[in-house]
Specification:
seven-stranded parallel sheet; about 30% helix; disordered C terminus
């Protein structure tokens, strides 16, 4: 599996907008109509390959265009399913019933989710072979020349068990075992075709608040997802881990999410999966802060991460500089080569539920690619490239500078707000600026508030002559050296407390 060895590569979670005629054909089929014509799906896949390459996505797939939903598609490939599953409880809407009606009502209106009522088997590989043929043809020759790597998605045993309830097997474990053995057929077929397999495992995060009422304990939930991982690993036993990526999320809907289980509480179990790449949400307001988890839970040497740096539930188009900031946070913790920029989740996880305008989806992916280029310029900075123009990387940003003002002036010396108050110099990427020599930004400076004057109101504090800190050049290569040590140079500095002020008597 590719790593970001020379620059930050880009990918996404899997589902992409379907052409409207195909979306309607899939919705009609879900309501009992005919199966979409194979040619219609094949042509749509060829189109979505071109769209991904035009947006400069490096690691691409078929957009899941031929599937009605990322998890429920299996009801047409597996035996043993009939009837209808009861509505899935999503407890973070309990306090917001009006919002639930608006969001979930639309999502569930045309979705068919049968229950397991018989033995689960995978009798024919025709459908998955068609998926493989479509993407193989679409990426052959010049049409797919820009693709760095190709993957196909498949539902995990755990997420199938969430959406398609068990009414047949005596225990949850028995149901998981049957699903794992059946889905192994699909996993093996994708791997045998030379494609990277992505197993979709939203159950590892999303299902926590679904079971809030019946089984609220975190320990019980951890045992449940550990069983799901065990079943998944059994199904993946014949595939090398470096050909598998795993996606987890907390539900791809614009809801409260205040009951989401923290990443910190499940990451150790997730990392036991036989998958070298872990994809997860990292851009939405509930989980963006969790990049810090990797400071405390080390990423194993044989794994890489695919954090979401663009949200998949809103029509906001992220600024490339924000995307770059998100990428750099992870890169400074786990290493630049072990980060691929991705989306939080899919943009069309179910054909009958489309919340993001298709044109916005492609604009968001293009912005991700621009942000990845900005991040790469910083993370692979060298003295020889100090004066290279970066206009191409920031064509839609705010000018041709290598990084934002906040990233450049991450240790600006500011006076403390009151007498003897300490202020810690901090890098915007986290608690300490991590370069090749480790954390080096951890200085303290103090300064009392001086008396007001006609030209300086009392609300404007100033350093005294005994509370200064000296600045020295930052040794981290992406920050580099600037020509003059002035405030206007916007250089990158470390901070060392001193007993006397610098040459200038004006605080930086």
């Amino acid at each position: 599996m590719l790593r970001s060895d020379e620059r930050i590569l880009t990918t996404h979670t899997g589902s992409l907008p379907r052409p409207e005629p195909l979306r309607q054909a899939l919705a009609d089929h879900e309501r009992g109509g005919p199966v979409p014509e194979p040619e219609q799906v094949r042509d749509a896949v060829a189109g979505v390959i071109g769209d991904q390459l035009a947006a400069r996505v490096d690691v691409i797939n078929d957009g899941e265009l031929g599937k009605i939903g990322y998890s429920t598609y299996v009801k047409e490939r597996l035996t043993g399913f009939d009837g209808q599953t009861e509505a899935i409880p999503i407890h973070d809407f309990d306090e917001f019933p009006e919002l639930a009606g608006r969001i979930l009502g639309e999502a569930m209106a045309d979705m068919t989710m049968p229950s397991c009522t018989g033995d689960v088997t995978y009798p024919s590989t025709v459908a998955v072979e068609q998926d493989i043929a479509n993407i193989t043809a679409a990426t052959a020759g010049a049409a797919g020349a820009g693709a760095q790597e190709v993957f196909l998605t498949a539902a995990s045993p755990g997420v199938i068990a969430v959406f398609l309830a068990n009414r047949h097997y005596p225990t949850h474990e028995a149901y998981l075992a049957a699903l794992a053995e059946a889905m192994k057929t699909e996993y093996d077929a994708i791997h045998a075709a030379g494609l990277v397999l992505q197993v979709d495992c939203p159950d590892l995060g999303m299902s926590r608040q679904m079971y809030e009422g019946e089984d609220p304990g975190l320990d019980a939930f951890r045992r449940r997802i550990a069983q799901n991982i065990e079943a998944l690993n059994h199904a993946l036993r014949d595939i090398p881990p470096d050909r598998v990526r795993l996606h987890l999320c907390w539900g791809n809907y614009e809801g409260p999410h205040h009951l989401d289980v923290p990443l910190r509480d499940i990451l150790d179990i997730v990392l036991t999966a036989r998958a070298s790449a872990i994809s997860f949400e990292g851009a939405n307001p509930r989980h963006e802060h969790e990049w810090r988890v990797f400071e405390d839970i080390p990423l194993p040497d044989d794994k890489i991460i695919l954090p979401g740096v663009i949200d998949s539930t809103t029509n906001y188009i992220e600024h490339p500089e924000l995307v770059a900031e998100r990428i750099i946070r992870y890169a400074t913790v786990v290493g630049r080569e072990r980060v691929l920029a991705s989306s939080d989740c899919g943009f069309a996880t179910f054909a009958t539920y489309l919340k993001i305008d298709p044109k916005v989806t492609w604009a968001k992916l293009a912005s991700m690619a621009q942000g990845a280029e900005l991040a790469s310029r910083q993370l692979w900075w060298t003295p020889d490239s100090a004066n290279e123009p970066v206009a191409a990387a920031v064509s839609s940003a705010r000018g041709a500078r290598r990084c934002t003002d906040r990233q450049r002036e991450h240790t600006t010396l500011r006076p403390s707000p009151g007498p003897t108050t300490s202020q810690r110099g901090r890098h915007p990427r986290g608690a300490g600026h991590r370069g090749p020599s480790g954390v080096h930004l951890n200085a303290t400076m103090t300064g009392p508030r001086s008396a007001p004057s006609p030209s300086r109101p009392a609300s404007t504090p100033r350093w005294s002559t005994t509370g200064w800190a000296a600045k020295t050049r930052c040794s981290w290569p992406p920050c580099g050296s600037r020509s003059t040590p002035t405030r206007s140079s916007r250089g990158c500095w470390t901070v060392t407390p001193t007993s006397s002020p610098p040459a200038s008597s004006t605080p930086s």
